[in-house]
Amino acid sequence: MFAWILSNVDGVAKIYVKNLCDKIKLNIDINTTPIDVSTQVPIKVGRNKCHIDMLIKVGNDKAFICEHKIGSQLSRKQIEKYKKIQLSLEKETIILCL
């Protein structure tokens, strides 16, 4: 639902990404930078395939990997998996657990 709102409600993705960038002190011109929101993005890590809950691509060189945790804990194994995914995306990537 959140990804749908980011993708379909005018201006929400820009406000959300600007808020994220402000929190981590990442300077991006949000008015001219394209934002793409995808869910259940398949990524191959080694011989295994996994899915990212939500991937927010910001321009051509930055991305946010979003792991949504509702009613469950984040495991160390998931963190290690996302570190490997970061390397495979070839973008400056920030991991968020929501």
Describe this protein's structure:
- There is one protein chain.
- This protein has a 4-stranded mixed β-sheet with strand order 1-2-3-4.
- The longest helix is centred in the C-terminal third of the chain and has 14 residues, at 76-89.
- It is an alpha+beta fold.
- It is built from 3 helices and 4 strands.
Order of helix and strand elements from N to C terminus: HHEEEHE
Give the helix level as a range of percent: 25-40%
DSSP strand count: 4
- Termini gap: 14 Å
What's the shape? globular
Rg over CA atoms, rounded to whole Å, is: 13 Å
Can you count the helices? Answer: 3
Mean pLDDT across residues: 82
Tell me the major beta sheet. 4 strands, mixed
Q: SS-based structural class?
A: alpha+beta
Neighbour order of strands in the largest sheet: 1-2-3-4
Uncertain segments: none
Instruction: Note the beta-strand portion.
Output: 25-35%
How would you concisely characterize the structure shown here?
34% of the residues lie in helices and 35% in strands. The chain has helices at residues 2-8, 12-23, 76-89, and strands at 35-45, 48-58, 62-67, 92-97.
